[in-house]
Design brief:
Length: about 325
């Protein structure tokens, strides 16, 4: 995983007032909400004798270990060892790792890296704040890099999505044009039918590319598809471990605002997103190896440019 990044790890609705155990970024994490509703996240292993803290209960906004009642605050420090008495100071060594958290747009992020380097808040496609949405969460048995690359892949459309968004037999891939701005990648799709006489245009031969259909990815794990000014598909690719990820897919719209009709429209949007996502999943979970890298035994083509850029930049970010 790329160090020193905010990672989306959960949908806000998944965390209620009870402690929650999740595996993310190869770690077992215990999450809960304190008395103000703020998200707290620490390693899910008691420093005393190793039980899962998320099996415990919340007392005055802190987490109590279910085995011998040690109390943990949101910084991962033990603030009370009941067996030693309330009068006794708790040694500094009594602690577990804690993670900075951020909640917004119905999502929960953790900072994965040095706390001193943490920015105040993660990047998000802020314009989506005006949209309503429906969410679907799908487990994929691949490293999150493979799930991301699938959404950067413009070559697969007429094959994987032959019956849906890839209709029209547009197998010839012009470009694509890929623009990178810091940690944001925007790529423009220009697939056409193959008349048997044409060779694809190189990225720098495509005029007016800004007018083309485009998609965006922001490191480390969010993506959006500009279906229209009023409709977007959004995804967060959440790392679980080296061979598993969760795809959080959202259908965002701001066309219909009347409450019941809006929910119905969002539901239909969600179902169509699931159909398309399942077409992707069927193929992607068969990819080997399950994790991508800059140097690997794959022969890429011009149409793979977004994937090539993603791999290169990911490698750079991992080297920091
Ligand atoms: S194992 Fe947690 S208090 Fe003993
Ligand atoms: Fe796809």
């Amino acid at each position: 995983m790329i160090y020193n990044q905010w990672y989306v790890i959960l949908d806000s609705n998944e965390l209620s007032r009870k402690p929650l155990r999740v595996k993310r970024l190869n770690e077992n994490l215990a999450l809960w909400r304190d008395e103000h509703g703020t998200v707290c996240c620490i390693d899910d292993r008691c420093c005393h004798r190793g039980v899962s803290l998320s099996c415990g209960q919340i007392i005055n906004g802190k987490l109590e270990c279910p085995f011998h009642g040690f109390i943990y605050d949101k910084t991962g420090k033990v603030t009370l060892i009941p067996a030693n008495g309330k009068n006794k100071t708790v040694p500094e060594t009594m602690k577990v790792k804690a993670y900075k958290t951020y909640e917004g747009y119905g999502l929960i992020w953790i900072w994965w890296g040095d706390d001193a380097k943490a920015t105040d808040e993660p990047f998000f496609f802020k314009e989506l704040g005006d949209f309503s949405y429906s969410t679907f969460i799908d487990p994929w048995s691949v490293h999150y890099s493979r799930a991301i690359e699938n959404q950067l892949d413009v070559v697969h459309l007429p094959f994987v999505h032959r019956t849906t968004i890839g209709r029209g037999d547009k197998t010839l891939v012009n470009g694509p044009v890929v623009i990178r701005d810091k940690e944001l990648i925007t790529f423009y799709v220009n697939n056409v039918k193959d008349d048997g006489k044409t060779t694809p245009l190189k990225p720098d031969e495509i005029a007016d590319y800004e007018k083309l259909f485009h998609l965006q990815f922001h490191y480390p794990n969010i993506w959006q598809n500009f279906i229209s000014d009023k409709i977007r598909a959004f995804a967060a690719f959440v790392p679980v471990d080296d061979e598993n990820s969760l795809v959080y897919i959202r259908y965002y719209q701001r066309m219909i605002k009347i409450p019941l009709l809006r929910e119905l429209f969002n539901y239909i949007g969600k179902v169509s997103s699931i159909v398309i996502l399942r077409q992707d999943k069927r193929v992607v979970i068969t990819q080997l190896p399950k994790k991508s890298a800059v140097k690997m035994d794959e022969r890429l083509i011009m149409g793979d440019k977004p994937i090539i850029e993603y791999r290169k930049h990911r490698q750079e970010l991992m080297g920091q």
